[in-house]
Amino acid sequence: xxxxxxxxxxxxIKKLFLWWAKNAYIEDLIGDxxxxxxxxxxxxxxxxxxxxxxxxxxxxxxxxxxxxxxxxASYSNYYHxxxxxxxxxxxxxxxxxxxxHKFFTSxxxxxxxxxMSISLLVLxxxxxxxxxxxxxAKKDRIYQINTFIDDGKNTKTFASTFYAVGDLLKExxxxxxxxxxxxxxxxxxxTHQGSKMNFRGYYSNEAFFDAFxxxxxxxxxxxxxxxxFSIVLTKSVAEKLYRDIDPIGQEVETEMGSFxxxxxxxxxxxTHLLFDVLASYDTxxxxxxxxxxxNDWGNFRDNYVYVLLKPETTQNTLTExxxxxxxxxxxFQPEHTIKFExxxxxxVVPRWNTSNELGISWDKATLSFFMSIGLLILLPAVFNYTNxxxxxxxxxxxxxxxxxxxxxxxxxxxxxxxxxxxxxxxxSLLASFFIFTHLQREFLDLLRASAVMDTSIxxxxxxxxxxxxxxxxxxxxxxxxxxFSRLNPIYTLKGGSLHQTxxxxxxxxxxxxxxxxxxxxxxxxVGALTKEYVYVLNTNHGFESDNTLAVEFHDMDKQLAINExxxxxxxxxxxxxxxxxxxxxxxxxxxxxxxQDTIDVKQIFIGDNFIENLDIKLAWENSNNLNRSTKNxxxxxxxxxxxxxxxxxxxxxxxxxxxxxxxxNCKIVGVLEDFNFEPLDKMIHxxxxxxxxxxxxxxxxxxxxxxIKSTIEELDxxxxxxxxxxxFESSFLDDEIERAYYFLTVQIKFFTFLSTxxxxxxxxxxxxxxxYTTENRTKExxxxxxxxxxxxxLYYLLTKDFIKLILISSAIAVPFSYLFxxxxxxxxxxxxxxxxxxxxxxxxxxxxxxxxxxxxxxxxSKVAHSNPAKNLRYE
Length: 875
Description:
By secondary structure, the chain is α+β, with helices and mostly antiparallel strands. The strands form four sheets. Strands 1, 2, 3, 6, 7, 8, 9, 10, 11, 12, 13 and 14 form a twelve-stranded mixed beta sheet that branches. The chain has a six-stranded mixed beta barrel with strand order 17-18-23-20-22-21. The chain starts with 10 loop residues before the first helix and ends with a helix. The relative contact order is 0.09. Helix content is 52%, strand content 16%.
């Protein structure tokens, strides 16, 4: 009679017996019951065996013998828990197993190290974000004022607040020691020694250095931001501008005017703020001509208020004052529901669902996304351990059977395997740390906020890593521990197959499929992003960029420069522009088409023949001569999106006229077909082209040269002859466009890391499974070879099951990748891209199969070409 595949007795009956026995020692009774059940199962059938098992259990429950054992257990000196000596023994067993099975241990360590390295990177970033502002001495008394606005359609919380809030809190509430006002958007282009350099910064008032603990190297922190057009530089900026002289008192030239350097501070570290320079808040008040910030209850974007409370003042006191302030704000905004909230400095980052944040802007959603990525890479490594542990169940089963027979309990078996996994995880942590240090350097170079984040290796981070490794070890060991602790000792010692074989096999296959599913998804992602990168560099954005040299104007006679450069024989034509096409444009301005409603537009100042030289297509034109503008009416060219946006208002006045924010009255004399003036990741916005040589920052030279290098050198000589102080800074427009897509190279690099780690971990798991399969089938393969089986037959026999699983994972990954990349990811990354193609999917699948088959072939070839006579003596 064939032995049944599931020799275990009904679980509920056994649990009933265990529950009734409580602490009584009944392992011998359980063993006898199980052995008798297996005998009856083979001789009398399943139903009869279950009936007899239940009858025996019931008789034992009612027996005097069990009652006596229960009474004895109440006074027994036997210690059922895991003693310290036993735990030490578990560690010895763990290291003995690692030493005995070096190959499988190495696979697990390498896989976990690769998987954990990404998670360590995420943890280091997370710890750094949560440690932001820890160095601030008054962090417990500093609060950021946030604004809650409900307009009936949308409800949002903004980190910014109205301009008037800061002055009102300072005047009305004496428990507030200092009010710090910060206005984002001070991004000066500093002209120094003929070169222009861009920096990021804020406007702030003199309370900034009283509230925040930023160290001043030189200058008076009390007065550094007290006067208009005062500027404070960070140490790195000061060294860049004034390497050999004292910066204090120096004049800094910007497009907004001249600033006087009043202080130099240490570079930022461990803070949520992110700036290179600080200008006085009074500077913003003077430059802002449309409103008075002290009385402005309408504008709140990019304006931030921090309050420093006096000692022993509670947050509840501040909350009450903010409620009163909200009532005042509601008088100016009756159509909106407005509330003010205070957030202590330590909780400013990270947060959920806060708009218009200041500084590094790491929210919990972003951290959760990165944690999910780390988990997706770590899971296959954990599955590797689970798969290989289950695969070795037959050999480990005998070990567990012996331990159970001599008295080991389930909890002790579980603890043994969990300790073994934790030790393996900690060893993997040491290996993953070396990978992490290299990854961290690469990744931090890609982060804009890395300069102010404290990612150094300290006790907090090391403790976090160790705790993480222990948790991963426990989680990875739970399933194998539960699996081994439930093994039937009698049956495993007889060499029988283990219980729930079919279910375990399905779990193993499911974990294997998931590993290669994730690998293929990441590989397709690399292919999709690479294709998009090639596409954006070769596609026509709607203008001609080939052989176009962009030369930045400095303080020189622009018309003279154009005339002199035009005389060079290799210069076909020349035009000018305030901004280079194909690169991101600065902030928007407003256009009023009907005297009342406004639309956000982006404006470009261009020179003569700009449209013709760049071969931009016109949908309609009345006149392409923009030089005929007058003081009362400026002739402009717009794009189709501008006309569509203006048409929404359905104004009765002439649809070809509108007013810009600076007061210019414009008349449309041409409409451009929509094209991508900005990179393809930017949506097409309403665009206005205005003619102005004075506002142009670049000369665009169309070259026709057989020796580009010589031509540029000759143009450099012409430039120097015009103005010896001006530096000839030139670059080809195609190169500038390529630099604008740097974010794509970052994403390709990121996905390449992920796919490399994922496929490496999956192949390690595949190698381990193939190795164990061939090891267990060595005798079978030897007999097949003796009976005449060819190498092809053996390869097919050993690889077919794994190839089927890879095919299943591909069948799941391909439609998932299409939906994820085509309909979601690529749409947000590159709205005007080319999408996911069939070639990238096929090449990704081919690559996955080649890597997978190479892994299988490398291991199976050893067995297929081995000597069958030698293998028959195996074990």
